[in-house]
Amino acid sequence: MPTQPPLPPLLAPYVTALPTSSLTVLSTVLGAQGNWLTLRYLYAALNASTASDATFSLSGDNNNNDGKKQKVVLVSFLRGWEFWRSEAKRLGLDLARLTDKRQFAFIDGLSELFSSPRTTPTTETAHPPLPSQPALRGGPIPQRTVLPTRSAPGPIPARGPQPTTPRPVAAVPPPSAPPAPREVGGPVTRLHWSSKGAAALDSLEKDIAAVVAQLKAAATAEDASEVLLLLDQPDLLLAATGPSKDVGATEMSEWVMGLQQYVDATVMTLAADLPLIHNASAAGHQMATPLETEHAAFAIGSAHRAHMVMQLRDLDTGAARDVSGVLRVSKGGAWGQSDNVDTNGGREEREVLYFVQRDGGVSVFGRGE
Amino acid sequence: MAPTNTSHRQTHNLLLISKLLSLRDTASPLALVLDSLEQPATPLIKEYIRRAKLSKVHITFVAFETLQPLEGVDAFVAARKKSPLEIVRAVNAAHTNVSTSGPVRRRLILIDAINPLLHARRTDAHFNISSFLSSFLMPQSPTASKVEASLVVTFHQDVPSPPPPSPYTPSPLSMLTYLATTIVRLHSFSHILAQKAARDRSLVPPVFGLEEEQDGVLLGRLDKPVGNDSAQGVVLELEHRRKSGRGVLEWYILPPASHYPRQYAKEIVTLLDDHPLYRPPQEPSFGAGEEEPESTFELRLTDRQRRDREGVVLPYFDAQQGDGPGEGGRILYDMGEEDDFDEEEDEI
């Protein structure tokens, strides 16, 4: 199989020049994860000018992003800074350097989401005065038993390799968010679940908006202030909080809509595994759990709001050595709401195969090619 | 069906859809549009807006999941994070601002998706969908001039509903279908064609998208399945309840917006049965079904030939008599000299 450029030509029209205020939903399943595609979005936005001569000439003239870099805010709920940094390095993107140049910002949604702010990770077990913390209405059990095992590896290596950042006031929390004062100094902003339901989502929105505003403020004359928001698996938030904390599909959708208002384009990764989508449908014979219902409502509702839906799935005929999975590009429910045809140029619905090589390179090809 | 009956149905039902889409005579105060990921409601909503513009109807768009106002909308009400009461107030305010300036008699209220409201946790237990919807249609104050309002509500069929608070509460969908005076179900034309093609061969009709129940598949729609370029358009399955209580069921097709100019005033919706792809024009010779195929040979019989044919006695009738040369069907065989007769095996 011939090696393809970092942005495969077949993929290029779909990951570049996303229409203004559009939402792109990227649905993944367990066997076909979407990290590589998220990285391609990242690459297309951050590397547009350098790649324009090689890749973009193949994909036609329809992208108006030629030579114009976008800034990217990556909010990851399932993977840490270290993962994205090393994966991006394989594509030739130095995320730490881009962070310093205010081209890129990473927001860690997992590490300290449910741990109380301003605690060092080593002293989590010594936390008897739980009722005194109003931020933890979720209950003491998840904090003590589950989260330390997860959060411990996150922050330490993430903060480790970034001692030289010349940005001591990165991610200054807005003064109106006292329950979640974040750690400053590193390139990573961490989200904290503060109170309950809509209020907590609002404060998360505020935190992310503050980061977006910083990037926009740092825009100089020559580079654009367009910001692309990548939301990596926010369904974790829904699964981890759920109806018992007054977070449902509607609240999540409105949260995403709120974030969309701050940025120019949004790409959201969601799990679309069979049980998460179909157990709640009317054809399901057993009682659906609240998680299944809410997740299905969130995922399908997001697809209704999306401009394009990129669906990753396993190969129908089973595993193969030279094919990793199938990518189906479909028009979402919001397709055609805005009348300008030129922004839709080159984006047809199609189904292609892809193969992720061992070195992280990806080739995308049609069936039989 | 007799041809007169068909043309009657055609005239009546086309008039009906024209009346409904153009909001004439308040034919239907509450229209429910049931869409899915396979066929979103956007083309129909745009068609509503286009016609309302032509007849100068004031359009209010209540956006639960749309961020950018659609083209041609007079008032855009973002319903995000608003309580039902706030939405009603905002919608009513959107119109009172206008009605002071000009004599707008009719208005159209579009709700882009009712599902988020039905799911939302902020709606309390006293929230009632019927009173919410009727508060749009009722005049706010007795002094206000009477405005004929039509409400078009979109409901995503494929978004699962949360479990009802009490087992005796009807589901939101059944509540909405009960309230609505017109229900439009949307289908993709290419899917309808594929299903019809399968049914014509007595095969199981194919399903698309979520109904495939395949891992990782949310949408199955592809624009051009196999070069099927002209199979565009939206199929509307319309159920209209008249005031008398009688229901009308009909299938229509709405062609894509690129096929006609924006200011086109004539009816563009046609019956699905009249579409050439759904029901191809029949071969002209098919109507005269009794005639046999023509050829250069004369295959028919004259009366005399038929009489002669009936008079022929076939050999097996002769053999059954038992007294003719066949002697009841026995096989007569004359031995030749090359035959080697074996007494034990052969018998004559």
UniProtKB/TrEMBL annotation, chain A:
Pathways involved: tRNA modification; 5-methoxycarbonylmethyl-2-thiouridine-tRNA biosynthesis
Gene Ontology process terms (BP): tRNA wobble uridine modification
Residue segments, region Disordered: 115-186
Residue ranges, compositional bias (Polar residues): 115-125
Please give an example of a GO cellular component term from this record.
elongator holoenzyme complex
According to the UniProt entry, which residue ranges have a biased composition of type Pro residues?
Answer: 154-181
Gene3D superfamilies recorded? P-loop containing nucleotide triphosphate hydrolases (3.40.50.300)
Q: Which InterPro entries match?
A: ELP6 (IPR018627), P-loop_NTPase (IPR027417)
Family to which this protein belongs: Belongs to the ELP6 family.
Name the chain's protein.
Elongator complex protein 6
Question: Organism, per UniProt?
Answer: Aspergillus saccharolyticus JOP 1030-1
UniProtKB/TrEMBL annotation, chain B:
Task: Tell me which GO cellular component terms the UniProt record holds.
Answer: cytosol; elongator holoenzyme complex; nucleus
Query: Its domain of life?
Result: Eukaryota
The annotated regions of Basic and acidic residues compositional bias extend over: 300-311
Keywords from the UniProt entry:
Cytoplasm, Nucleus, tRNA processing
Q: Where is this region: Disordered?
A: 279-348
Against InterPro entries, the record matches this protein to: Elp5 (IPR019519), P-loop_NTPase (IPR027417)
Is Cytoplasm set as a keyword in this record? yes
Q: Which CDD domains match?
A: Elp5
A molecular-function term among this protein's GO annotations: tRNA binding
Compositionally biased region (Acidic residues): 335-348
**Compartment(s) where it occurs, according to its Swiss-Prot or TrEMBL record:** Cytoplasm; Nucleus
Task: Tell me which Pfam families the record gives.
Answer: Elong_Iki1
Q: Which GO terms describe its biological process?
A: tRNA wobble uridine modification
- Which pathway or pathways does this protein act in? tRNA modification; 5-methoxycarbonylmethyl-2-thiouridine-tRNA biosynthesis
Which protein family is named in the record?
Belongs to the ELP5 family.
Q: What is this protein called?
A: Elongator complex protein 5
* Organism expressing this protein natively: Aspergillus saccharolyticus JOP 1030-1
Q: What is the lineage of its organism?
A: Eukaryota, Fungi, Dikarya, Ascomycota, Pezizomycotina
